[in-house]
Each structure stands twice: as C-alpha cells, then as structure tokens.
Inverse folding.
C-alpha cells in the first residue's frame, strides 16, 4: 500500500520491523506507532476536505503529533506547509493568503487570535502539544490502515516559505523525489543505521529540523529523541545514551560553555552543523574540548542539502565540504555566468534531484533563478579549492542569518519605513557571539518628527516575528550613499561592528 506513495514508502521502509523509537519528554513511541498516528492524521485530513495537491498549513508546537501531521499530509497526497511558531498574526495572514491552503492547523491557544487571518481558509483545525485540539479529536476517530495516496517522485510533498530580497516571501515547492533522495544520500554519507540515536532539538518548521534531521532518522530507522527546543542541560544529559546531534552554530557555541560537555560528548559518534557559517574558532574549540571534529554541511530551503564535509576524511574548518552524490555544483562569474577557474570567488550554482521545482505561483522569479541548463543560482558566493572543498565566502543576496534564521533586510526596512515619523532606514547584520549575526536598524526620522527606539520596537513587535526585530536601533541624521544613490551598508556595518562585544 505504501509503495504507491514515493516519500512515505521510503521513510517507512527503514523503520519497519526495527526497534526504532521516538523518545519524547513524555511517553515513548515506536515508529510503528508514529506511522499508525500518521495514517489517522491522513484520514482526518481527507475527511476535512483535503484532496491531493491541496496545501495543509500548520503553525504548531513541536511534538510527535506534529510529525504525524507532516507524514499524514504526505500520505494524503497533500503539500505540507509548516510555519515558524514565532510568526505574528500578520505574517501568518500573508502565508495563508498566498498559499491558499485547504486546511490550516494551529495551536489551540492561538485559535481565536488567528481565526481572523484564517477566515479565507475552508477549514481551521487545532493541534496542541499534549494531544489536544480538534484535529487530534478527528484523528482519534479514524480507523488504522489509511491507504496512502499514490504520489510519484515529481509530485509536491511540501512547500516552505523563504523570504527574498524584494521583501516578499516565496513558497519553495519541494517534491517527494527532492526529499526522499536527499534523506537517502545523507543517511548513507553520514553512516546512519538503526543503532543510532539522534538528539533532535531543532524546530520542525524549517529544512534543517524537518527534512535533514527527521527524514534522515526515518530513512535510516534510527531512534530519535525529540526535545521541544534547544536546552544545553538536556542535550548534555542525553549525550551518553545518544550518538548524533544536529544543530545550527549557536548550539555549538552555547554547548561549549557547559561544564559537562567534554565528559558527555565522548561516546557520541557525530556532530553536524549547518544553516549558518560555523566559525573556525568554534570548530577548533569543539575539537579541543570533545575530541570530535564537527561535520559542517551546506543547504538551502530550495535545494535541501548540497554539500557536506566527509564522514571519513578531513573535515576542513571554514569549508562546507564536497557536493553530495548526485549534486552538480559549479562556481560562476556573477556578471557573465561563465564558470570560474578553481580557487576564484563566484556564485554557487547547483543542480540535482535535491533542487526544488520552483516558487509557488511565481514563474518569472523561478525562471530568473535557474539557468537554462537546469542549474539553480543559490545567491551564495563561494570557492572550490584544489582538493574540491567548497567554501562559502559571502552572499550576493542582502541577507542576515541570525541563529540559523534568515532575515531579509528589505522586509524589516519596509515595516520601519511605513511608521509615522520615519523617513528611511537601512537594516544590517552585525557580528554577535551567540547568534553569529543579529539584526540592527539605522533609522532617519522625518525633519521635526519625534521618533524613539522604543516606539519603533513596539510597532515592529506587532508585525514581525521576534527574531526579525532589530536588537538595536540607531537613530542617525542620514544614510551614507554612493554616487549612484545606493545605501552603503558596508560603511554602516563598519561603523557599528563593535556594538555587541563578546
Ligand atoms: C530566538 N530569538 C532569536 C533567535 N531565536 N533572535 C534572533 N535570532 C534567533 N535565531 C529571540 C528570542 O525570541 C528571545 O527574545 C531572545 O532571542 C533570546 O532567546 P533565546 O532563549 O536565547 O533563544 P532560543 O529559544 O534559545 O533560540 C535560539 C536558537 C533558535 C538558536 C536555539 O533560534 C533555533 O533553534 N534556531 C535554529 C533555526 C533553524 O532551525 N534554522 C534552520 C533553517 S533551514 P527575547 O525578546 O525574549 O529576548 C536552513 C537550511 C539549512 O537554513 O542549510 O539548514
Ligand atoms: P534558508 O533560506 O533558511 O534555507 O537558508 C539558506 C542559506 O543559509 C544558504 O543560502 C546559505 O547562505 C546559508 N547556509 C546554510 N548552511 C550554511 C553553512 N554551513 N555555512 C554558511 N552558510 C550556510
């Protein structure tokens, strides 16, 4: 029955007949139990009106039920659309309006607040962390044995929004084949087996936590310990009975301050980092304290994972390793598109089964970001060294990555520029020991207007998720511009670079 559904079949096969388990802060669940719950979720979605190809949007807390909803949506032939739990009502409203889901699932505690922006969605259901909510009730009434809807490798399985330089978020359409092939490639490369136990402390609404961590665990049949979020004490306590941790660089920076790390990490097999640059200093300190070299890999919402440092062989700090099997990668001249000689900096372009199908209802934007020979232009700048290691050296896109979350300055600038008394603004990222980078804004007030940092912050809190809100606002007389009138953000970054010491 499962064979008809490309992704579900591949995720379920490895865990069948194995001891794999999902360890939760509460009860333990076998993978058999997880898939039975997913079958009931699929039945509930279908009974709520979901048809193949429909979007199922969800802004819910991390739990086994949330994973069952993801798998159930895949089994129902729907397109799963997870949303960051930090998104405000206004942000959720945009995604629902753009994606037009058949069902929106939210936390019971947020139902009354979100009902207004979900008014255009045919069905609003709720799912709480403790197995409560209207979707949980509907699922409990479904029989086991839902027959997964037939889906091929090219059918959509998920859609994840990623913001853009224009300030407008785009839905990246990911197929069953994209997700299944990437999970299989990573599980093989990183030598995952049913003997592994992965510590899962990442959120499950982005590529890293949902597809890299969860899909790799399912595709290899390993056990998974699901933590609600990052918690250094809990992670260190779990290490002696675990084998692998996946995290963003902030995880590793924070864990290095934990007195129990060295002892606890000894029996671990693998530490994986990604989503943001891992500083060489963090890599070196981690190796000195734990004896393990962190394995850094590179990916994107649109492409899943592109490259990885080797499992066996040198894990080179400051690089993201080699292209994954099945991924073509080249470095091109940003002006001409011609391939660059080895060692020179250019745009990173990728092609392979991992690369998404395009942006939802944005054919123009999709065409712009693909070459005619199928390569996707990532917007990251990098080099390929003589040994074939890829290093990311910058970005051609104006983007801040804070604690592994992407913030496009344009979106924040538009929110600030719309406030009373503001003439213009420039949003930049500044170095920060914990988050890698943090968002700050330089704001110019209209002549005579009384604008304060506190008033701007209060206004932004109503429309932007907390991680997008500037940590500081610098009120300045004018923005530095070049002769073409373009704001010189590099000068602003230089001026304020020491704002967050140590
Ligand atoms: C939380 N805050 C952040 C933040 N996370 N601010 C900026 N950047 C972030 N990433 C806010 C909180 O709301 C809080 O605000 C304050 O900062 C301090 O919170 P905290 O308790 O220190 O944060 P914490 O809950 O511990 O979260 C930090 C974190 C988390 C790093 C653990 O952000 C996280 O899990 N990040 C992972 C993101 C991720 O999964 N990215 C993958 C994208 S996929 P206040 O006001 O209360 O002080 C991708 C592709 C790929 O990129 O290659 O993987
Ligand atoms: P997202 O849009 O959230 O999927 O973020 C993808 C972006 O994160 C990439 O385009 C890179 O800029 C960045 N990224 C992911 N992994 C790494 C890494 N290991 N090192 C540096 N940047 C990374």
């Amino acid at each position: 029955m499962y064979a008809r559904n490309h992704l579900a079949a591949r995720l379920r096969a490895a865990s069948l007949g194995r001891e794999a388990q999902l360890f939760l802060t509460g009860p333990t669940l076998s993978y058999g139990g997880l898939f039975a719950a997913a079958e009931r979720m699929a039945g509930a979605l279908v009974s709520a009106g979901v048809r193949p190809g429909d979007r199922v949007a969800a802004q819910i807390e991390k739990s086994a039920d949330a994973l069952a909803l993801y798998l159930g949506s895949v089994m129902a032939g729907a397109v799963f659309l997870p949303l960051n739990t930090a998104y405000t009502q206004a942000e959720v409203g945009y995604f629902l309006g753009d994606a037009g889901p058949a069902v929106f699932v939210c936390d019971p505690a947020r139902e009354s607040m979100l009902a207004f922006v979900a008014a255009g969605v045919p069905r609003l259901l709720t799912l709480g962390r403790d197995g409560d909510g209207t979707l949980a009730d509907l699922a409990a009434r479904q029989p086991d044995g839902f027959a997964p809807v037939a889906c091929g490798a090219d059918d959509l399985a998920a859609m994840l929004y990623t913001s853009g330089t224009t300030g407008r978020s785009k839905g990246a359409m990911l197929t069953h084949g994209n997700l299944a092939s990437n999970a299989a490639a990573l599980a093989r490369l990183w030598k995952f087996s049913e003997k592994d136990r992965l510590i899962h402390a990442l959120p499950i609404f982005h590529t890293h936590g949902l597809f890299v961590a969860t899909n790799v665990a399912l595709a290899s049949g390993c056990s998974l310990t699901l933590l609600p979020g990052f918690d250094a004490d809990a992670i260190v306590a779990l290490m002696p009975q675990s084998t692998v941790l996946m995290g963003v660089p902030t995880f590793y920076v924070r864990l290095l301050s934990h007195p129990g790390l060295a002892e606890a990490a000894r029996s671990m097999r693998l530490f994986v980092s990604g989503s943001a640059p891992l500083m060489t200093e963090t890599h070196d300190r981690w190796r000195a304290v734990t004896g393990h070299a962190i394995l850094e890999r590179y990916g994107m919402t649109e492409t899943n994972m592109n490259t990885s440092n080797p499992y066996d062989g040198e894990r080179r700090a400051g690089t993201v390793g080699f292209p994954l099997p099945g991924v073509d990668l080249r470095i091109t001249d940003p002006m001409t598109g011609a391939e660059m000689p080895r060692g020179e900096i250019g745009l990173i372009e990728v092609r392979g089964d991992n690369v998404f199908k395009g942006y939802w209802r944005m054919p123009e934007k999709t065409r712009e970001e693909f070459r005619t020979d199928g390569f996707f232009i990532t917007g990251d700048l990098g080099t390929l060294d003589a040994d074939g290691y890829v290093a990311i050296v910058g970005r051609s896109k104006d983007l801040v990555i804070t604690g592994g979350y992407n913030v496009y300055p344009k979106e924040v600038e538009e929110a600030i520029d719309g406030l009373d008394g503001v003439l213009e603004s420039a949003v930049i990222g500044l170095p920060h020991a914990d988050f890698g980078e943090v968002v700050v804004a330089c704001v110019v007030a209209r002549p005579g207007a009384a604008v304060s940092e506190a008033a701007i912050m209060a206004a932004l809190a109503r429309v932007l998720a907390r991680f997008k809100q500037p940590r500081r606002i610098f009120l300045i007389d004018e923005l530095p511009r070049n002769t073409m009138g373009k704001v010189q953000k590099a000068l602003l970054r230089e001026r304020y670079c020491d704002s967050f010491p140590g």
